[in-house]
TrEMBL record, chain A:
The keyword Transport applies. Keywords: Cell membrane, Lipoprotein, Membrane, Palmitate, Signal, Transport. This is Carbohydrate ABC transporter substrate-binding protein. One of its GO terms (biological process) is transmembrane transport. InterPro entries: Bact_solute-bd_prot1, SBP, SBP_1_CS. Belongs to the bacterial solute-binding protein 1 family. It comes from the Bacteria. SUPFAM superfamilies: Periplasmic binding protein-like II.
From TrEMBL, chain B:
Keywords: Cell membrane, Membrane, Transmembrane, Transmembrane helix, Transport. Residues 71-282 form the ABC transmembrane type-1 domain. GO terms for cellular component: plasma membrane. The chain crosses the membrane at residues 12-37, 77-97, 109-130, 157-180, 201-226, 261-281. InterPro entries: MetI-like, MetI-like_sf, UgpAE/MalFG_permease. Its main location: membrane. Belongs to the binding-protein-dependent transport system permease family. Pfam families: BPD_transp_1. It is found in: Cell membrane. GO terms for biological process: transmembrane transport. It is a multi-pass membrane protein. This is Sugar ABC transporter permease.
Length: 432, 293
């Protein structure tokens, strides 16, 4: 009897699983075409937007109202998941479950390669010709443009002009020696020179280390060389120099850099406890939230004593909006993207509300609009004194690996040579 | 006879069916799909999935020191976590079955951490470790609070252990309380009359009688601590320099950060087998120690 019963249960189980497996298969097959509802004419279509910039959610929702007024046949459905890694995982889940968004973010370069068979070629869009050349780079492949860069972001040392003046520093440091002198002066004036949020992987392994890459004679060749084994990070002078800068910031920084996160160093900075921190111009809104009207500026991160080469700011494209190729409402999605950068409303939000440095030449931005940091970055961009942010060219996962080996160096678990070996090993482990 | 069988089948379908349906939907199917992906090089996005046979497993065994490092971390963590949660849980239960006035309040208080989600707990404790402890250190000058909490491998490890024990011992306490209050009063009284000391009673009478609870609690604690993910993510994110990366976090990172979904599922499958074997052995061993009064 007992045996019989277990047979029955087993057969039920099998039957159910077969049934479900069948259902699963059907769903997967249909997901591409039905994910976005039916495409009948005259019907209201929904464009699903999935992005990760949490700081623009509010503005995006206000824009949505305006846009829907102008285009009553298109509805926007905006979803946001913050944080780099969480966003990537969430996006994959969405695609896997057949709930793919129509517009989503992409980082360009290596990420473009990964998603390329899902995204639409946007080369024929009217705004493409107006892109700032640097901004178009990450999403350009074989002469085609696949995404709309949201903005430009400059990364360097954000500094407190008042504290610099108090310590008697008149000019921003252009070389590592000058930087150390400035740090000494600050310390003598009783101010902690650096706030280091070295708990954050992106600050080290993504934005920080980018300088060491950008300073190579030809960075694309160098990265190619790393991938095919003809180049190495070990004993590369630029990396050695970069580690000197890192040491300098730790030496003249607040204590416990490895448990300090970005919120903490922002708070330290806004309260005038530290004079400098590695940040990007997005910090403007964050600082304004803590203490509005601070007298601040930004200068590039110098790794050696070549004043000219050091005076270039790292500039990256944090996100590009791309259109899902298989979307049923991709035309509507394109309409929205175009509206975002050509309508007065969209332009105003980009510069004034989000304080973005526009990636299109047709959008103008003044210092009052984008804040002091933005204005500094824009000055560097206009003078073409910029290095591209290199990290999107790295193999997947390398930025995080870099961050942990850099943290080892900070903690004294490895010396500079060991560190460079570890950096190389991290690359080798993850290269394709 | 035949119709009776049919109605029995109908009954089983009715009662067991829904559970089986959902279990299959959320456990079995993903598990089987995961098994398939562990033999491929899928990156999580691309439409092209290539069969690579046992390459992923070979890679884990030959070329992935990080995985074994995180495995070592998880084993150390599990050992401590299991022992401490059970000890704390048991002794909480032992004292809270004594006639105390604040008994019910205390029970609630100790169970409370379980009600809050692990992720949230992690963020709260991160704040306590970094801000709270350093302030306490400034006030008291005790070196314990002045350690670089979460900032190096040792404090990171102990911080996770502490929060884990704090979170889960309350749950085990409830199991132990249920079991302790079932120990028959007569046996205890008889032992007391025979002149047994408190320790003797605890060791020779209570311990064997609550063995079924020990089996369950050990099993729960082992599987919790092996699979620990949320605390790890919110407290240290595996840092600094990957020193506190649990296997679950390593798998997640492999699949979603390194975009090597196939390799990630291979690790997950391997991990499943290891945990299954360990818990099976544990249940066997403790079951054999169960007695009846």
């Amino acid at each position: 009897m007992n045996k019989k019963r277990s047979m029955v249960i087993l057969s039920v189980l099998l039957m159910m699983s077969m049934l479900l497996a069948a259902c699963g298969g059907k769903n997967a097959a249909n997901s591409g075409s039905t994910a976005n509802g039916s495409g009948d004419k005259g019907e209201v279509k929904t464009v699903k937007i999935f992005q990760f910039k949490t700081e623009i959610v509010e503005g995006l929702n206000e824009l949505k109202v305006e846009f829907e007024k102008e285009y009553p046949n298109i509805k926007l459905d905006i979803q946001t998941v913050g944080g780099g890694a969480d966003y990537a995982a969430a996006l994959k889940t969405k695609f896997a479950s057949g709930d793919a968004p129509d517009i989503f973010s992409n980082g360009g370069f290596a990420e473009l390669d990964m998603w390329q068979d899902k995204i639409e070629d946007l080369s024929d869009q009217p705004w493409v010709k107006d892109l700032v050349p640097l901004a178009a780079e990450p999403m350009t492949k074989d002469g085609k443009v696949y995404g709309m860069p949201m903005n430009l972001e400059g990364i360097g040392y954000v500094y407190n002009k008042d504290l610099f003046a108090k310590a008697g520093i008149t000019e921003t440091p252009k070389t590592i020696t000058e930087l150390e002198e400035a740090a000494k002066k600050l310390q003598a004036a009783g101010i902690t020179p650096f706030g280091n949020a070295y708990q954050e992987w992106w600050l080290l392994g993504n934005q920080g280390i980018s300088v060491a890459f950008a300073r190579q004679d030809n960075v694309d060749e160098f990265i190619k060389g790393l991938n095919d084994g003809t180049q190495t990070i070990v004993d590369n002078p630029q990396f050695k120099n970069w580690s000197n800068l890192l040491k300098l910031t730790v030496q003249y920084g607040q204590k416990n850099p490895l448990t300090t996160d970005a919120n903490t160093h922002l708070a330290l900075f806004a309260n005038g406890e530290v004079a400098m921190m590695q940040e990007g111009n997005w910090a403007q809104t964050l600082i304004d939230n803590i203490k509005p009207g601070m007298n601040i500026g930004m200068f590039p991160m110098p790794i050696d004593d070549d004043a000219e080469k050091n005076d270039k700011l790292t500039v990256g494209i944090p996100a590009n909006l791309v259109v899902n190729k298989e979307s049923a409402s991709k035309e509507e999605a394109k309409i929205f993207l175009n509206w975002l950068v050509t309508s007065d409303m969209g332009k105003e939000y980009i510069v004034k509300k989000w304080k973005f440095i526009p990636a299109l030449t047709t959008i103008s931005a003044s210092a009052e609009d984008i804040g002091l940091l933005g204005a500094d970055v824009k000055k560097y961009v206009d003078e073409n004194k910029v290095y591209g942010l290199q990290s999107s060219k790295f193999p997947d996962g390398v930025t995080q690996e870099f961050a942990s080996v850099i943290q080892e160096l900070i903690a004294g678990k490895s010396d500079v040579n060991g560190w460079m070996t570890n950096m190389q090993a991290a690359w080798d482990k993850l290269k394709k | 006879m035949r119709s009776r069988k049919l109605s029995q089948f109908g009954q089983q379908l009715f009662f067991v069916g829904p559970a089986v349906l959902f279990f299959t939907l959320v456990m079995i199917i993903p598990f089987v799909m995961g098994m398939y992906y562990s033999f491929t090089d899928w990156n999580g996005v691309s439409g092209q999935v290539a069969w690579v046979g046992f390459d992923n497993f070979k890679h884990i065994f030959s070329g992935d020191p990080d995985f074994w490092k995180s495995f070592g971390f998880t084993v150390r963590f599990t050992l401590l976590g299991v022992i401490l949660t059970n000890l704390v849980g048991f002794f909480l239960a032992y004292f809270l079955t004594k006639p105390l006035k604040t008994r019910n309040v205390m029970r609630t208080v100790f169970f409370m951490p379980n009600v809050i989600g692990g992720l949230l707990l992690g963020f709260i404790w991160q704040f306590i470790f970094i801000k709270g402890f350093s302030t306490m250190g400034e006030m008291t000058g005790w070196s314990f609070f002045e350690l670089p909490w979460l900032g190096d491998a040792t404090t990171g490890f102990w911080a996770i252990v502490m929060v884990f024990v704090w979170q889960y011992s309350g749950y085990l306490m409830v199991i132990y309380i249920a079991s302790l209050s079932n120990v028959s009063k007569e046996v205890l009284e008889a032992a007391e009359i025979d002149g047994a000391s408190h320790f003797q009673i605890l060791r020779s009478i209570i311990a064997p009688l609550i063995m079924p609870a020990v089996t369950v609690s050990l099993f729960l604690a082992i599987s919790w601590s092996f699979k620990m993910f949320d605390l790890n993510l919110s407290l240290t994110k595996g840092g600094p320099f990957k020193s506190t990366e649990s296997v679950a976090l390593n798998i997640y990172n492999e699949a979603f950060l390194n975009n090597r979904y196939g390799l990630g599922t291979a690790k997950a499958l391997l991990f499943f087998v290891i945990v299954a074997v360990i818990t099976l052995i544990q249940v066997r061993v403790t079951k054999s120690k169960e007695v009846e009064a």
